[in-house]
Amino acid sequence: MSKSRKEPASNLNIIVIGATGCGKTLFTRTLCERVKGYQVQGSFRESSPHVLQGPLEPTQELYSVSMQLEQSSNQRSTSFTIIDTQGLVKGVALGHQLGFLAKYIDHQLERSLIEESKVKRNTKAYDTRLHACLYFIDTQLGDGLCDMDRLAIELLSSRVNVIPIIGKADTLSARQLARQKATFRRQVFDIYKIPLYGLVTLDDDDDDDDDDDDDDYSNDDQDTGGTPFTPTDISNGFYLSPSDPTLSEDENNQDSSTLKFLTAMLQHVAEKEANDDARAMVDYLKNMPLVVIGYEEDETTGQPLVIMADGMDSGTGSNMADGTILGRIYPWAVVDCCDPAHCDLERLVDLLFSSHGEMLRLDTLKRFYEQYRIDQLLSQRVEDMVTVKSKANQQQPIL
Ligand SMILES: Nc1nc2c(ncn2[C@@H]2O[C@H](COP(=O)(O)OP(=O)(O)OP(=O)(O)O)[C@@H](O)[C@H]2O)c(=O)[nH]1
Ligand SMILES: [Mg+2]
To answer: Does 129 sit in the ligand 1 pocket, CB within 6 Å?
Structure first.
């Protein structure tokens, strides 16, 4: 691998959360297997020995693996850490589980705050702040967001960029998948208004310093959930997502209105300003929640079954250097985890390591870390005031 690189190394820390049994651990292994070709030799670290090996079992406690990745195609270098967590379980323990995860995420922000507050900072200190949470939606009960997922993503969205994922996509038909996606999008964005990654708040204040574009969108009369603009692109039908030919026109039209506006606005920015970030965001919003499929594992070793790429007719997946594919064999077909026609693993890899990496880091810094810092300063100030007041009370002479 080339040693000369144009960009300095950046780091990316992601956490995988969701209901028990929805495919988080197998996804973690599949992603690590997928990026193995970019791994710098000797850079692999794990929180305890052999966490990615052995038969798949329910995850009992949080673990992490880290590696340095170098993609020669774009000369990017990334210090990557992925953290897999114990599955969420409905019932009395859920509060405890969510509390633990919230504390864990806050603790990473706290570590940066402590480091930043030092007079002499350690420039080599590793930044452990979490840049994204891949949240696996529970699709076992059919359409609609269950209370557990709603509670979890509401809580997590105030601390980290939440990217929703549908795992085990091979177990759902195209029509079921499209319906699940549409229902999720409507519920999260139009009904509960949960600020997942990518949902910018479109209130009046946001437009103040962007006068040039105001006229393009101004129309307050629409039923937009508070969004003060209406790009004509929407009514022209430019936007249709999740666009699935197996859905009727009616079903396709039932997509989230908030997302339609947001996507149309970003599309406008992308075209008008040739803005790559806006373009990347449009692509993400049109396809979210992303769907993934984990490889078929050998039951005793947990390692991927060896499936040769020869004879596969798609030819678009198969990113493994040795001519094998990461996939699953069914009597009627072979599923290729890296084929964009089968699932969104490649889209996710591109999102994390290329098109959205900077946006995720920036959001973490500006949105979540800043908020955490301000909250901590305010609570410190309140504590100081209480101390001063109680001292003053003690010193007052009793009349
Ligand atoms: N068909 C199919 N099965 C999968 C997929 N991903 C995981 N599985 C299977 O689902 C079961 C649970 O997978 P895990 O990856 O352990 O699920 P998990 O979410 O980590 O479970 P917990 O650790 O208990 O939270 C295993 O038997 C996997 O083989 C997938 O994409 N497709
Ligand atoms: Mg697991």
So the answer is: no
Specify if 2 maps to a domain: no
Q: In b/e form, how buried is each residue of 273-290, taking b as 16+ CB within 10 angstroms?
A: eeeebbbbbbbbbbbbbb
How confident is the model over 269-293, as pLDDT tens digits?
Answer: 899 988 899 999 999 999 999 999 9
Instruction: Please indicate, yes or no, whether residues 148 and 260 belong to a single structural domain of this protein.
Output: yes
Amino acid 248: pLDDT: 58
Q: Mean pLDDT throughout 209-225?
A: 38
Domain interval for residue 323:
296-339
Instruction: Tell whether 54 is covered by a domain.
Output: yes
Neighbours of ion ligand 2 (CB under 5 A): 24-25, 59
Beta carbons within 8 Å of 338's beta carbon, 6+ residues apart: 34, 317, 318, 319, 320, 325, 326, 345, 346
Report the range of poorest mean pLDDT among 16-25, 133-142, 314-323.
314-323
CA-proximal residue: ligand 1, atom 13 (nearest): 23
Number of domains composing the chain: 2
Q: Same domain, yes or no, for 375 and 309?
A: no
Considering the domain architecture, whether residues 16 and 160 belong to the same structural domain is answered as yes
